[in-house]
Write the structure tokens for this entry.
Amino acid sequence: MARQQIKIAHRLKKRLLLIYSGHGYLKWINDTLGHKEGDRALEGNGRDHEQHVSGFRFGARMGGDEFAVLGLEESEADFY
């Protein structure tokens, strides 16, 4: 999917925005409150990314508590 977004960005002459984040608290939530609460925390985090990245295209789990979000540039404000 990332390769496809790169091709689209190139064709549209837009930049890509990549957010890579680690959530160290996730293990604690899973171990202490259960995996159901861990899933709820991840869903909330995904909604936050969708709301704050206007060109949001997709997000992916990269590791146990590491995530990446990829979006197309919509305006210069996306990068500040």
